Amino acid sequence: MKLIYLILSVAVCCSLFPAAAQDNYSLWPRRPDELQQARRLISEGNTDEALVLLRPFINKQGFAGREARHLVSAIRIRLYLTPRHPRARTHTVRRGENIERVATAYHSSAELIMLMNGLLNPSNLRIGQHLRVAPVDLRVEIHLTAHEISMWDGRSLVAVYDMVPSHFDASSKNSETSVQSIEGELRGARIPHSSALFASSNKVLHLANGILLRPPSFSPSRTAPSIEMQARDLNELALLLGKGCRVSIVTDESTFDPFAEQQLNPAPIQGSR
What we know:
Blueprint: H1 2-16, H2 18-23, H3 33-43, H4 47-54, H5 62-80, E1 89-92, H6 99-105, H7 110-117, E2 130-133, E3 139-143, E4 148-153, E5 156-162, E6 175-186, E7 189-191, E8 202-207, E9 212-214, E10 226-228, H8 231-239, E11 246-250
Parallel strand pairs: 3-11, 9-10
Antiparallel strand pairs: 1-2, 3-4, 4-5, 6-7, 6-8, 6-11, 8-9
Helix pairs in contact: 3-4, 3-5, 4-5
């Protein structure tokens, strides 16, 4: 009798929560085979095959989607911060050029160019030197209910980061904004982009709607809504973004369309990032 009752209870649970059974594999003892296989392929260095397996899970809710996004992120962010960046081009330094001028020409940033080319002193550019350069025009999605921040290049996921748990009053509607500027923070002091200390500082992103993306150590001088990220994650995110990059604040996943027509267009940067 107890066995019959147990079977009926399981059947009722499955009928009440079919979506959860499909999306949240933590309810069951076995996780999706594709995730297991993808991890194995990554450990063997077959990242292209792993990405093919992970692609169907990237936009899923629940633990399967979350794990897939983090696996994809671990693969792709490495490319975007190296000379193998998918949209990198080679620039030959000409007379009179400095790194800021090169960055402006390619809608890039001095910090990304320095990282991609292993430059310690950007003032020592040589005529004829070859530099790998790439634009900083990616877009960001801030998923407040999932406490997750993702960065995209068109329809391709580049990286995903966890938000530091904190109270954030959000509207019930999804909204669009953009990166207004990027400044640094070092031991409590604000570091402008023009400072020589900017490259080594922790980054703070100011969005056009007044929201700050900041590390937990940063205390804003004004009362402003803010979203916290680990400093290392935020510094990585800031390397690939420039002024004008689109940022989506997502509170309702069911109505969010990341590819809807937007009025916000990434703008060429320089001056203040």
